[in-house]
Backbone:
C-alpha cells in the first residue's frame, strides 16, 4: 500500500474509526454498531477507505459500504439483489439490478442476527465468484 492509498498514511480502519468519532452523534453510534456486527459476522473482513471517504467492508469483493447522511446511515450491499433477505432489512435502492441498501434513521434498530446473516451470505456469494446464485447442478 502506498501513502496515497490512505490519508496521511493512516490505515483504512483508523480512518473509519476517525469518521465514527467525528460524527459524534447517533450516526456515529449507528455506524460503529453496524461495523461491530460486520466484524462479528466475518472476522476476516477487510476494511477499506474508498471514493474520497467512504468506509467499505470487503471479503473477496465488496460486502457493503457505510455512508452517513444528515438524516440516516446507509449500508449499501454491492450484490444485495442476489441475497436472500427474509427479515426484509433492505429498505432502499430496491429497484436496482445489483445493489440493495439499508437506511437506518435516528432511533431505529436493525435486527442483529438478520444483519449478520446478510453479511455472511454476501461473503459466501463473493467467495463463490458468482454474481447471481446458480440453480444448475454441476455435471
Residues:
Amino acid at each position: 500500500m502506498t501513502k496515497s492509498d490512505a490519508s496521511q498514511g493512516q490505515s483504512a480502519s483508523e480512518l473509519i474509526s476517525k469518521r465514527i468519532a467525528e460524527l459524534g452523534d447517533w450516526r456515529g453510534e449507528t455506524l460503529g454498531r453496524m461495523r461491530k456486527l460486520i466484524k462479528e459476522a466475518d472476522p476476516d473482513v477487510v476494511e477499506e477507505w474508498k471514493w474520497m471517504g467512504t468506509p467499505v467492508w470487503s471479503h473477496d469483493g465488496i460486502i457493503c459500504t457505510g455512508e452517513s447522511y444528515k438524516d440516516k446511515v446507509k449500508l449499501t450491499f454491492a450484490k444485495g439483489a442476489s441475497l436472500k433477505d427474509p427479515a426484509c432489512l433492505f429498505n432502499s435502492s430496491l429497484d436496482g439490478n445489483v445493489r440493495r441498501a439499508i437506511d437506518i434513521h435516528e432511533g431505529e434498530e436493525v435486527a442483529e442476527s438478520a444483519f449478520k446473516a446478510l453479511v455472511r451470505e454476501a461473503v459466501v456469494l463473493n467467495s463463490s465468484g458468482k454474481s447471481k446464485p446458480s440453480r444448475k447442478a454441476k455435471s
The first strand starts at residue 46 and ends at 50.
